[in-house]
Amino acid sequence: MKAHPVARRDAEPNMLDRETFGKRLRTARKEFGWTLARLAELSGVSITTISRAERGQLALGYENFAALGRALQMDMNAMFAGAGIQPAQLDGPVVTRAGKGVVYRGLSFAYEFLGTEVAGKQMSPVVGTVHARHIHGPEDFARHAGEEFAYVLSGEIDVHFDNGEVVRLARGDSLYFDSRIGHAYVSVSRQLAKIVGVTTSESSFMQSARAGDSGAARAVAPAKTKAKAKAKTTANAGSRRAAAPAPATVRRPATSRARAGAAPLARRK
Question: Closest Cα to residue 197, out of 241, 144, 119, 266?
């Protein structure tokens, strides 16, 4: 059995500074032979933002580094892997000990990425500290493919959506939503709130379900569909029974033997 040694609780966090992150972006872009303008065109992130991020002058928010990762075909875990770690395919349980995730300080969030040793994960789990205190404008809202889950570990947050809806979450509360909708987290407690967040990649099943595909609907609720079909069949059978005419009473003619036996009795009378 493979052992997973327990790390010291007072271990130093595994920080990913802006300069190291910027070098990873630049290296990935150069491998494609792309200019800043080409990467900006493919990712939707401005040339200025990419340039400053590559030079370590600007921290990126989730929407921007997710968009750059997709354009560069760069796995999120490779983007945020610890120093000297090369993410590999999942071949067994992966343990991230307390305080040993990879920490990146974004614009309004401090992300501690978990399980970064695994490449190609369908989920990206993080422990996040929400630094934002206010919404300053539309640029504060993140949008990215997939779905998102948040669970509050401590403090309180407001989750703002770009349609004007605001959801307040306290310790122990959780929220699940379509992350294509613009959203932003704000700490409203005295101390900065801490959450567990999980984002998923966009799957073909999600796309089918959102498009109202009948196959996806059947996959979600096969029992309900079968129950409806059974009820319909039973109702139709009952209707047929109710509509069927009652069988007519058939009078059987007297046999010739009976008629022959009745005549002598009449004569005797």
Answer: 144
